[in-house]
Design a protein that fits this description.
Mean pLDDT: 75
Shape: globular
Structural class: alpha/beta
CATH superfamily of the largest domain: Nitrogenase molybdenum iron protein domain
Distance between the termini: 44 Å
Number of helices: 27
CATH class of the largest domain: Alpha Beta
Low-confidence stretches: 105-109, 278-374
CATH architecture of the largest domain: 3-Layer(aba) Sandwich
CATH topology of the largest domain: Rossmann fold
Strand content: 15-25%
Length: about 675
């Protein structure tokens, strides 16, 4: 990741850059914001008026003279206050080969230009003048004028970076997995390959796959298959719909291909699945979601090496196209939810998405965090709670909770709350098994009909949920969204304690945890001394290193116990924003500490002996001298209170033996 303005300057100095288009668009109050996926990297400049600009899920104040940068593949939405006139400059860029190799050696796997940042310039006219001249030259039929437009683009970038450095503005990496998930949710019916998805978002296929596995525990193609088969399952009951027609509508070439994937997904053929459906199923005219991108024909650029492009003088048209008529299964969900509501659930949920966008910080790279306490209403039995996306109305004492976090379920269990249902990923920790009897396994968590049947009064999820999925869940019950990866374990437990009304129990665990650390830390620090500790996991034909975030004992080793990490791990994974680093086997000695905690990756079919059986691994001092400890694979991914207690016991025993076990007693 390019973290600083100086690194951005170095990047621009070592890149091939091509100007693609320069537009001037206008929007007026009342124009419906239209989603537009950026076909190339883009600069936006608010020439007159103002409003809100959304890049993916980030809201930015787009007032007069403000500049934003969005990476290729980001979804852009503009919402004017009263009037908005704006420039959009599209360009293509790639690092020169020798500089790209430097990025690869630093673990930067995606296109370094795919970053979001913005600012309010101190000298806006210096930028506005260049944009006006650039557009005039770009629209000229004279190739000499177009050449000058390219030169002006370089001057524009120079001036922008100069002012960014003066203001201390830093870039922000977009959420690659969320972008790819949204794209597949909305374009599942189109021909799609892993290569196409990776190319669209400017990264390699292997990098995209590894990011998916790290975040979601499955590959991009497996996720796409689930989306398609889920859509097909909902369409089976449509009157007159043939299996071939359904297959074509969800992206399969024929009924046979769909049937094969369907059986793998649901364990039975479409015909047997259909036999188990209710006899009356409303006909839904279109399974495409409301949260759709502009169709391919709506001024969607195709960028090829011969520099061909479509030119337009009315950039606003891409936001004014009328959306195609569409309805999703949410219509069915709403009807069932209304029936449930009539039976007395009485819960309402006010989604925070739109309000969060309207009240976003004026800082162009700020993101909201959930810190505000809940406010109770004794008369209604509900209270307001500020989660990571906005304000939601929840029960004062929720009793039927559905947990969709996948890894944070232990927070509920520690507070004495057994959720009525959870995803399959929540069920995998060996530390939770005894407390999960009777909890319904929701698989991937996308079976909305099953969730409805459980009549929850609260749903808990991380905030990487797609907007369309969140909207469906919010029709069923209030949804609390937690910021994924943003909170340390104690902070996350406090939030669970807050919205469940068990803050005292949460604080009691934290106090006891701190007492345990106080008992064992001095002895462990004395034993380890100045030596380093690393967390390493074999992954297929490579290896992952982990820092102080994302489980695997990192929060304890580096956070609570304050042990030293190898310098590169401290720089990239503790002081830096990343959770883990994907290494080649050759990089192993650089990341290996004097002590190593390790386990097989567990998510894929990789053979751990590729690492454990290698001469490099066997030659590490920690391996030769017996300072290597094998943590539980299935339990290593979790960092909830129950899992942390188990991990702490293992860590203490690894360093101190029976003496450490006695200290914890």
């Amino acid at each position: 990741m390019v973290k600083t303005v100086d690194e951005q300057i170095a990047l621009w100095n070592h890149a091939n850059v091509r100007l693609i288009d320069v537009r001037l668009g206008t929007l007026a109050d009342g124009d419906a914001p239209h989603a537009y996926r950026l076909p190339a990297h883009a600069f936006l400049y608010a020439a007159e008026g103002g409003g809100i600009a959304r890049l993916d899920e980030e809201s930015h104040n787009f007032g007069m003279h403000r500049v934003l940068h969005g990476g290729r593949g980001a979804v852009l939405r503009l919402s004017p206050d009263e009037w908005l006139s704006y420039y959009i400059v599209l360009y293509k860029a790639e690092p020169l080969p020798h500089y790209a190799r430097q990025f690869a050696s630093r673990g930067v796997g995606a296109d370094p230009f795919r970053q979001h940042y913005g600012m309010l310039p101190t000298s806006p006219l210096a930028l506005a003048d260049k944009l006006a001249a650039m557009r005039e030259d770009w629209l000229s039929a004279d190739p000499l004028d177009q050449l000058r437009a390219r030169q002006l683009f370089g001057q524009f970038v120079h001036e922008l970076l100069r002012q960014m450095r003066a203001q201390g503005v830093e870039p922000n990496r977009p959420d690659l997995v969320a972008q790819a998930v949204r794209f597949m949710d909305e374009h599942y019916s189109e021909p799609m390959t892993l290569a196409r998805i990776a190319e669209l978002f400017g990264c390699s296929e292997s990098y995209l796959t590894k990011q998916f596995r790290r975040r979601l525990g499955l590959s991009p193609i497996r996720y796409l298959t689930q989306v398609r088969t889920d859509r097909a399952a909902r369409m089976l009951g449509f009157p007159g719909a043939s299996l071939q027609e359904i297959a074509e509508r969800v992206g399969y070439p024929d009924a046979h291909s769909l049937s094969r994937s369907f059986k793998k997904r649901f364990g039975r053929s479409p015909a047997k699945y259909l036999a188990g459906l209710p006899s009356v199923v409303p006909e839904l005219p279109d399974m495409r979601t409301e949260y759709a991108l502009a169709p391919a024909s709506d001024r969607c650029y195709i960028i090829v090496d011969n520099h061909s492009h479509e030119r337009t003088t009315g950039g606003a048209s891409m936001f004014r196209k009328k959306r195609a008529s569409s309805m999703t299964a949410a219509a069915l969900l709403l009807g069932i939810t209304m029936l449930i509501s009539a039976c007395g659930t009485g819960n309402t949920n006010h989604a925070g998405g739109s309000s969060a966008a309207a009240s976003a910080s004026a800082s162009p790279i700020a993101s909201p965090q959930a810190t505000a306490p809940a406010a109770a209403s004794e008369a209604t039995g509900t209270r307001t709670y500020v989660d990571s996306k906005g304000t939601v109305t929840i029960p004062v004492h929720p009793e039927r909770i559905v947990d969709l976090t996948g890894s944070a379920i232990g927070n509920l269990l520690e507070l004495g709350i057994k959720p009525i249902a959870a995803t399959d990923a929540s069920m995998q920790s060996p530390y939770h098994q005894e407390q999960l009897a009777g909890v319904v396994n929701l698989g991937e968590g996308s079976d909305f009909e099953k969730i409805i049947s459980l009549q929850p009064d609260l749903i808990v999820a991380f905030d990487y949920l797609e907007a369309a999925i969140y909207d469906k869940l919010a029709e069923i019950a209030p949804v609390v969204r937690l910021a994924y990866g943003a909170d340390r374990p104690a902070e996350l437990l406090k939030k669970f304690g807050d919205f469940t009304g068990r803050a005292d129990q949460a604080q009691a665990w934290i106090d006891e945890w701190n007492r345990k650390i106080e008992r064992v830390k001095p002895k462990i620090v004395e034993t380890v001394g100045d030596r380093t500790v690393s967390i390493l996991q074999p992954f297929a034909k490579g290896i992952y290193a982990w820092g102080d975030k994302g489980g695997r004992g990192g929060e304890i080793l580096y956070g609570d116990l304050g042990l030293k990490a190898p310098p590169i791990i401290k720089q990239k994974l503790i002081d830096g924003p990343e959770f883990g680093a994907n290494l080649s086997l050759e990089q192993l000695p650089e990341y290996a500490g004097d002590y190593i905690f390790t386990s097989n990756w567990g998510w894929d079919d990789g053979d751990p002996e590729v690492v454990y059986g290698s001469a490099l691994w066997k030659g590490l001092p920690a391996v030769k001298e017996g300072r290597t400890f094998f943590i539980d694979t299935a339990g290593s991914y979790y960092n909830d209170p129950i899992s942390l207690d188990a991990q702490l016991a293992f860590i203490v025993e690894s360093f101190l033996g029976n003496e450490g076990t006695a200290l914890l007693s």
